[in-house]
């Protein structure tokens, strides 16, 4: 099991992989509000993987996802997607390449109907369209005319995930999608993340606080600490206790 000491300031080398990386971060540094948050993140994610990212509050998990999408500028290091250098690419271009993010809060328009929200994320040439979304979330078909602002927290989260899926991404990044949801909805969100990965073949990066749930659905766990990768292991090689000790 490989762990690195975060205060050594040295990021562990990228995990060697036989499959070329879909996403590759190489020594990525980024700042938020003038403060360093990512301090040299090195991470490879292969196509088809389901990677969970854990870390204590403020560790830099959301910043990591936002940096991949170009919403936080990279100060140092490089981000590659499908072999292309996207380090300084504008967000719309990164989205067009196939990266999608379900943000931690309000990844939808409250004053628009479900159908209009879905149209916002749609891509005409994509593999995922309304039929696929309504099959995944039948409740959204029933409520397609309803304003999203009048729906429950769980239903809104389904809309947020659906908007992200409507761009037919190759990489779907979910930022704590189960926060504030009741247990049966948390289970449903995890199930959807798994379906997206296995049925649509979409690579998934899931930021999540619920370690037990993560170990049930992800196949690889990455722990971020002080802006560095502290642990990067297949789920089969870690225990919840071990991860708890790191957080
Ligand atoms: N808008 C902001 N203004 C100032 N500081 C911010 C802002 N957003 C994030 N930060 C700081 O950046 C650091 C990393 O935040 P980030 O949201 O990436 O952490 P996180 O690991 O996702 O945390 P959480 O689990 O609480 O969501 C934190 O110290 C946070 O206080």
From TrEMBL:
Q: Which SUPFAM superfamilies match?
A: P-loop containing nucleoside triphosphate hydrolases
Arranged from A to Z, the UniProt key words for this protein are: Amino-acid transport, ATP-binding, Nucleotide-binding, Transport
UniProt GO molecular function:
ATP binding
Write down the InterPro entries for this protein, in alphabetical order: AAA+_ATPase, ABC_transporter-like_ATP-bd, ABC_transporter-like_CS, BCAA_Transport_ATP-bd_LivF, P-loop_NTPase
Q: Where is the ABC transporter domain?
A: 23-247
At the top level, the lineage of the source is: Bacteria
Under Pfam families, the record lists: ABC_tran
Similarity comment text for this entry: Belongs to the ABC transporter superfamily.
Protein name, entry field: ABC transporter ATP-binding protein
Q: What is the scientific name of the source organism?
A: Blastococcus deserti
């Amino acid at each position: 099991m490989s762990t690195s000491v975060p205060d050594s300031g040295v990021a562990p080398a990228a995990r060697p992989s036989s499959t070329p990386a879909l996403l590759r971060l190489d020594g990525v540094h980024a700042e938020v509000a003038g403060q360093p948050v990512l301090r040299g993140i090195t991470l490879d994610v292969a196509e088809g993987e389901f990677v969970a990212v854990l870390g204590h509050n403020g560790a830099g998990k959301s910043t990591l996802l936002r940096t991949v999408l170009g919403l936080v500028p990279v100060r140092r290091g490089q981000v590659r997607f499908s072999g292309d250098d996207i380090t300084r690419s504008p967000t719309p271009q990164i989205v067009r390449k196939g990266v999608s993010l379900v943000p931690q809060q309000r990844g939808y328009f409250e004053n628009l109907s479900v159908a209009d929200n879905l149209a916002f994320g749609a891509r005409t040439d994509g593999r995922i369209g309304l039929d696929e979304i309504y099959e995944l979330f039948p409740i959204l078909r029933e409520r397609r005319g309803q304003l999203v602002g009048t729906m429950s927290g769980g239903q809104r989260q389904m809309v947020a995930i659906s908007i992200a899926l409507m761009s037919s991404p190759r990489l779907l990044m979910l930022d704590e999608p189960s926060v504030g949801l009741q247990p049966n909805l948390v289970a449903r969100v995890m199930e959807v993340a798994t379906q997206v990965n296995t049925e649509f073949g979409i690579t998934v990066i899931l930021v999540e606080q619920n370690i037990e749930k993560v170990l049930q659905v992800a196949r690889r766990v990455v722990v971020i600490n002080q802006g560095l990768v502290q642990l990067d292991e297949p789920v089969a090689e870690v225990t919840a206790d071990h991860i708890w000790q790191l957080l």
